[in-house]
């Protein structure tokens, strides 16, 4: 793993969980390696994540920060 990727995982953990107590593999399994469906419609990208047990922090974060967009100004919505 590159230093850059490692630091991105640390930023993800700090932003979502407010700590740096987890290892990178655990973060990957909890937040990145999950199944879901993506729907593109009317400048919105809806991401419906299947494994909701560990995804509360992501969903809470996105609900608090309503203006999350991609490079084309499509709004990202996590469910």
List the defining traits of the structure above:
79 residues; alpha+beta; 3 helices; globular
Number of strands: 3
* Contiguous uncertain segments of 5+ residues: none
Strand content: 15-25%
Task: Tell the overall outline.
Answer: globular
Largest sheet features: 3 strands, mixed
On the 0-100 scale, what is the average pLDDT? 78
The total domain count is: 2
What percent of the residues sit in helical stretches (DSSP H or I)? 40-55%
Strand order of the largest sheet: 1-2-3
Q: What is the tally of helical segments?
A: 3
Structural category is alpha+beta
Distance between the termini: 29 Å
As a whole number of angstroms, the C-alpha radius of gyration is 13 Å
In N-to-C order, the SSE pattern is HHEEHE
What is the topology?
Blueprint: H1 3-17, H2 24-32, E1 36-41, E2 44-49, H3 56-64, E3 75-78
Structural write-up:
The longest helix is centred in the first third of the chain and has 15 residues, at 3-17. The chain starts with a helix and ends with a strand. The mean pLDDT is 78. It contains three helices and three strands; from the N terminus they run ααββαβ. It has helices spanning 3-17, 24-32, 56-64; strands at residues 36-41, 44-49, 75-78. Helices cover 42% and strands 20% of the residues. With 79 residues, the protein is an alpha+beta fold. The relative contact order is 0.15. It folds into two domains: 1-33, no CATH class; 35-79, no CATH class. A three-stranded mixed β-sheet has the order 1-2-3. A hairpin with a 2-residue loop joins β1 and β2.
